[in-house]
Amino acid sequence: MSCCAAGTESALDLERLDHALPTSEEMRLSSRDLGEGLRQIDLSVPAVHCGTCITTIERALRQLPEVERARVNLSTKRVSVVWKDKVGEVETDPVSLARAIAATGYESHLFTSAEEGSDALRNQLIRAVAVSGFAATNIMLLSVSIWSGADASTRDLFHWISALIAAPALIYAGRFFYQSAWNALRHGRTNMDVPIALAITLSYFVSLWETIHHGHHAWFDATVSLLFFLLIGRTLDHIMRDRARSAISGLARLSPRGAMVVGADGSRDYRPVEDIRIGDRVAVSAGDRIPVDGLVASGASDVDMSIVNGESAPNAVSTGERVQAGTLNLTGSLIIEATATAKNSFLAEIIGLMEAAEGGRARYRRIADRAAQYYSPAVHLLALTSFIFWGLYDGDWKHAMLVAIAVLIITCPCALGLAVPVVQVVAAGRLYRNGIMVKDGSAMERLAEIDAVAFDKTGTLTLGRPRLVGADEISRDAMALGAGLAAHSRHPLSRALWSSASGPVRQFEGVREIPGAGIEAETTEGLYRLGSRRFAVTEARNGDHADRDDRALSEVVLSRDGQELAAFRFEDTLRPGGEEAIARLKAEGLSVGILSGDRAGVVSALAARLHMDHWKAELSPREKAEFCASAQADGHRLLMVGDGINDAPALAAAHVSIAPATAADVGRQAADFVFMRPGLEAVPLAIETSRRAGRLIRENFALAIGYNIIAVPIALAGLATPLIASIAMSTSSIIVVVNALRLNRATKAERAALRAAAVEYPSAGTRLAS
Fold first, then answer.
1. Is 42 a catalytic residue?
2. Which range of residues forms the domain containing residue 511?
């Protein structure tokens, strides 16, 4: 079904347009000055639903001479417009922007970040389904008595009761189709709701005419039943479309509302983050997020850089080193000197990347949308042709009208409308039972098309939990000393070391943690240190080959008075089922690789272990997103599997994306799929299910088209009444639903994989495998 050409549900009347739109003053106050005579404003367009909506609005705006550029973001339903303050010597009236959008049939208003809430349209659709279902059931009960041979007076009475039940049902439940059809027609377009609106309207009024003239036949039951089936399809379609959620608001929450700015005299003044200027010195306490990009002016600390590189291990920073907005200060207090404003900082850049990526992916045209482009004109032509032919052939224009109504009903896109959403709902349910959440029905269509897969490393291919290797080679005394020191730190490597101790550990007093370096404790035996080799070992402080960045393992060194006692080496734990999942993906002919922010040595070692086709290391969030975008530009259909905040732009830029449930909130929101299982077998399972769903969707389209090939000639020949047409249409819808339910049958390969997963992870639960 097409939701796009319809535009808004309640279009603005031209005569009251200026009263409904924001004023010029309101729009200027809400806009931003970009310099060089350019301004930008964000408008909310709630009725935007897909790529066609985007194209229509952007085309209308770009035709205005004052518009420099316009971009529609589907996830946030926001239109960002950059316009010239003046065209020639004439000052631009920004209301013309809103007026241009309204002229295409989409209502707009000033965008606010608080435009989240319950899905009102979904609730309205569900109520409409209930009303039409109730009306159809009661009218059908009355019709049974008429079909059973009721006398004329009883028949007329039941027809009038049916008319009274049908009228409010059509007005209330059918308003979605009426508003959509009217809005399309008044703006010179047509859509699939136009024949639907014609069919139910003409069917009702012809039935009413028959009732007034004591006719034997009326088709109120067919009219309301048709509406009921159509609303079911539209509701399912809306629910699947609306599961997509933007991650941008989650990213924005990572930015502090304000920060303490340190004055030249040492005074501290709290300022909103928007008021921090380049050169300001900002105090950042342990546990706070850094508000803007800057250089460390004083202090040392460990900083959680997962938003930048995706790695769980914090980075040590000290005077003169660069820090980015949104990163988390963990241990020490810092004074940073701002090198960018909030609007130009790293976090704002990530949000910009997300918006651009989501806007690009929103242009993907769903199968049903592509089918709707040709379906509606064909239906109109058939109905009009049948009406004119029969009217001229036998001169009975009433009969011609009934034939045209039968054609409209029999060709109503109910089966076509159900073909996609019912399969996607069944597929989503099947994935849910196997621990995979899908947020957007179109994501399954995109997942079925992929030819390459890119994995993030830490938190995706691995669990982000360091594991001590070679523990048997470490003496019991060294392990007791190292674990005793590690107990005083929350660093991931320290926690891994402490948890690896199998015996009693040494108790230390007066332990001091040096941010970015390690832990030390002064004892009667000497100074014990646990940390980096450069920190712990005297001869390593001028550089040591063992402390290179290209090593495949992370290292922590234990020393006493600068002499090395032991070296503890760690590797990240591979996510369960990783090797099997990669093998299944490669067996499907997919190119598989790694995109990581980690060191090259670590990434290359993991890529070799998993027999990956390619890998890239030390990538920034922008570089990951650019890689995904370039893959798209080269004609590839890339699946991105990632978990971190730094992966969010890449997850949005890829053709389709998957994240584990352990991912950061922003990562989960940006992804199209989220898997709840601990293992990676969810990735090939999601791909296989999506491909099967794609095959069933194509089968459903073939069934719907085949039904029309058989039924339409019968209707054109005048051999189908509106009631027969409605029954035929309903039958085709039932066939489509039954065919979709075949998706619940697992293949032999899937059952084998699920049984294996159930043995390895019995707590995950795999009901489908049993």
1. no
2. 464-573
